[in-house]
Amino acid sequence: MRRRVEAVKRLGLALLALCGLLLPAVALAQVQAELVAADRSVQPGQPVQLALRMQHDPHWHSFWKNAGTGLPTRLMWELPAGWSADAIQWPTPVLVRDREGNITGHGYEGLLYLPVRLAVPAGLKPGTEVELKAQARWLMCETVCIPGKAELSLRMPVRAEPPQPDEDVRAAIAAMPMPGASEGWQLAATREQGGLALRVAAPTDIAELHFFPADGFVSYKVPQTIGNRGARALLKLPLDEAETLPADARLRGVLAYNDVSGTYRGVEVDLPFVAEAEAAALVSTTDLGAAPAPATTPSATGATARDARLSLLVVLFAVLGGLILNLMPCVFPVLGLKVVGFIEQAGSDRRKVSLHALSFTAGVLLSFWALAAALAVLREGGQQLGWGFQLQSAPFVFVLALVMLAFAMNLSGVFEVGVRATAIGSRLQTQGGAAGSFFSGMLATVVATPCSAPFLAPALGAALALPTVPSFVVFTAIALGLALPYLLLSVFPRLVGLLPRPGAWMETFKQLMAFPLYATVGYLLWVLAGQLHEAALLNALLALAVLAFGLWLYGRGTRPGARGHGARLATGGGLLALLLAALLGWPRAPAPEQLQWEPWSGERVQQLQQEGRPIYVDFTARWCATCQVNKKVVFASGRVRDYFRQHRVAALKADWTNADPLITAELEKWNRSAVPFNLAYPASGGAPAELPEVLTPEIVLAAFDTPTPRGQE
């Protein structure tokens, strides 16, 4: 037996090794990378320009520094003593899209040069040779995304005379985005209701503009509204709902455009936000307006066709879902009774049978229209909602997860809703005339709703996502599906005898349908994890647990036979737990005084040091309890937050929740093998201060006042 186990282990290791060999080969097949130099030799003491040359296969792309959906390319250098490398210089990016024309991020296609400036020591001896090494990592995408990695090296001779240039690399460097203060360019940024605005006056005519933001508070995937006439333009930039616009924010990024020759170029933007009057004085764009983006672009056309197909599918599934509602346990047992009641009241007059059926259908329709109207009113907030837009809202996803969990627990039998309503409906439907059938239709909707989660939930999602008129169409389709058996059985009363008999199979079916909902809750939590910071996500998870507890209590208090104070206490406790769950987990945007964390990288540290900014680096992980306590203790202090804002301290997070070789290597550099670990870099440059594992506000503030690392006083 042991030999078999050992054989299986060896086979598994062999397969893992094979995968490790094959995956880089597959990755490199899509993007070929190499190091190239702008000059063919090195002069002692003179900086040299290198570049990462990346050739993308057709339809494949890699990503810019603010990728949107994706990860930017990184370079980790291994240089001789005395050498140092600056951060990557980023060319003007392009919009990358999926096959349906949707914007998925900012990146590069085709042939790309990513320049890097290296400082060369003055002590190099002419006639020798240097080898420069780097590891490149990137993410490349087509319909799927694959991580890429390459170990690169470049040998260069050292010569005293000026070097010969490589014209291709020099041309790529020359095509980098020009500074925004270039002669003839005037730019101004303002804050506006619901977004931002960028006013542009160029030295020559420009066209096909797009602003690529360097920060996440400008949405990368919502189209920008552009007014453009000759050399002047006005861009309306939408904000990302998941991000907070800091009070001291600047508009940073690259403005891409086509010049008069059709050449694609870029201008660097780094602007403070100014008042409307000041912006108008700097750049006059009053006659440009805010012309809407053309609706005839390929992406818009594709989106329209796709929305039409999706709407048709939603309507078809809505009819089917409404029809299957009748199989749910709280509706099916009274289906035959309702039809028999129609027939008994109508006698042999088929016109009266049809009238009762139509009245019942009208009651169902009115109920669903009322629900659709209520949802339409909730959407009236000035936003134009498209298909699936609400899933970008963390509060919507959170509420949907709560509702889905409640529906699933109802189907699992933890609590019951609708039994008494069924009895009420039976009494009301015995009233004479079409009015009784009408109210029976309304109550049929009420009775069906609690136990119809697998089918009503998609309708709710569509009603919130689609425009008002299509959402009413969806609800109408569900209502007609629900009323269809009553219409058919009223017109053809002999069909009543063909209905399957109620039995234990319906309870099994009901419980079985709970599991797709539990899976949906898991999916929504996965979506929520990408929208919330760690503490808020933990609150949402705890809220689901509190909700489950409250529903269990409610079920105990309302079960058949439950009486007295115990039942009332259980019911009240359950309702209180429901309220607590909503308050606990409701997603909240970070308060303006909270810090905005950036992902850590060695290049970003170098860039911030060159800017003369102090830096705080937090090596952390979600599974590290001490890390979470440190953040709550330190950054709950107003003194720390004020210090960070006043001194423009950059907060970088090195998230080690998942294995990351770069973070591991950085920890090893500091003789560390665990987190928490924190570094405080002074604004004056130099070595950072190493902080202890357990932090207080005083320790963090003292680290910036004392730039000398611990142990080196």
Unreliable spans are 1-28, 289-304, 381-390, 418-432, 449-455, 707-713
What share of residues is helical? 40-55%
SS strand fraction: 15-25%
Shape summary: globular
Q: Overall pLDDT, averaged?
A: 74
Please tally the β strands and state the result: 22
Rg calculated over all Cα atoms:
32 Å
Quick overview:
This protein is of the alpha+beta class and 713 residues long. Helix content is 44%, strand content 21%.
Written description of the protein model:
There is one protein chain. With 713 residues, this protein is of the alpha+beta class. 44% of the residues lie in helices and 21% in strands. It is built from 20 helices and 22 strands. Helix 4 runs antiparallel to helix 10 (453-465) and helix 8 packs antiparallel against helix 9. The radius of gyration is 32 Å and the shape is globular. The model is unreliable at 1-28, 289-304, 381-390, 418-432, 449-455 and 707-713 (pLDDT under 50).
Draw up the topology in text:
Elements lengths: L1 H29 E7 L10 E9 L5 E7 L5 E5 L5 E2 L8 E4 L5 E6 L2 E9 L9 E13 L3 E13 L9 H8 L11 E7 L2 E7 L5 E7 L11 E5 L2 E7 L11 E9 L5 E9 L3 H7 L15 H27 L10 H12 L3 H30 L14 H18 L7 H11 L3 H16 L4 H13 L2 H24 L12 H9 L1 H16 L4 H25 L5 H22 L12 E2 L2 H9 L4 E6 L4 H11 L2 H9 L3 E6 L5 H9 L7 E5 L7 E3 L5 H9 L8
Parallel strand pairs: 18-20, 19-20
Antiparallel strand pairs: 1-2, 2-8, 3-7, 4-9, 5-8, 6-7, 9-10, 11-12, 12-15, 13-16, 14-15, 16-17, 19-21, 21-22
